[in-house]
Amino acid sequence: MKFEWKGVMPAITTKFTEKDTLDMPMFLKNIEAQIEAGVSGIVLGGSLGEASTLTREEKKVLIRETLGAANGKIPVVMTIAEQTTATAIEVARESQEAGADGLMVLPPMRYKSTDLETVTYFKDIASQTDLPIMIYNNPVDYKIEVTVKMFQELMEMENIGAVKESTRDIINIGRLRNQFGNDLKILTGVDPLALESLLAGVDGWVAGLVCAFPRETVAIYKLAKAGRAQEALEIYRWFLPLLELDISPQLVQNIKLAEVATGIGTEYVRKPRLPLQGNERQRVLKVIEDSLKTRPELPDYKNLTTMA
């Protein structure tokens, strides 16, 4: 399998049982739905995957089981989101030993590092693994921006080759592309800016609502990359109320409710998260229910010829 940072890569949710253990049957049901829809990779253990609540042993289980389901067809990427460099390196090594194909690395957690500290952190991790690395650039949620200047230093590392671009600044896609050309692969990480980002030339989409709607997500990507922007736009406009559920502090609960509605997930979250309550729960359920009533028919997107 040739590893490429491109296509739709679900930031998959972690499924739990009512007893707060991993729900592997439902997790694998979702993975199978993603693969059938035509995703290009699976990203495990991100913020949507409730990474901060997972034990290291649970992460190994998720990698092993996902690799088994993927069966070499698509890469499996593990997220590194740790408080210390030493722990991040240990998790990176464990992920490689468990069979992960790549890593998505977040900046230091719970500490607003300086530019130098951030670059050093990323380079220290990259120097201790052979796996390809995608940097997660999300200053909105993590208060640390990885700038073009910082990427110039990071690109000195042979295995740092991609960015999950979540600044919510479409102009930044052009900045990165103008500076690095195709040497740095760019994947959008903001669901309700996905089509705009694809038309601006990103290579892929690390998606959230794909967890509940894999076929629609891949169809938008394929249509956009095949030059059929109007058809992609029609699906995207239908999808937008759902996609906006991804840019919320309760994105995990929102997306898990959507997974329940489409039959490929459960609502259980791990504390301190709690299921949605009251008016907010009803609002999110209405968005999901209204969208399901008008769910579009999709073209034969799997057989489209896409541009690079």
TrEMBL record:
One Pfam family per UniProt: DHDPS
Taxonomic superkingdom: Bacteria
Family from the record: Belongs to the DapA family.
Name listed for the protein in its UniProt record: Dihydrodipicolinate synthase family protein
Keyword set, alphabetical order: Lyase
PANTHER family: N-ACETYLNEURAMINATE LYASE
SUPFAM superfamilies registered for this protein in UniProt: Aldolase (SSF51569)
Provenance organism: Euzebyella saccharophila
Gene3D superfamilies: Aldolase class I
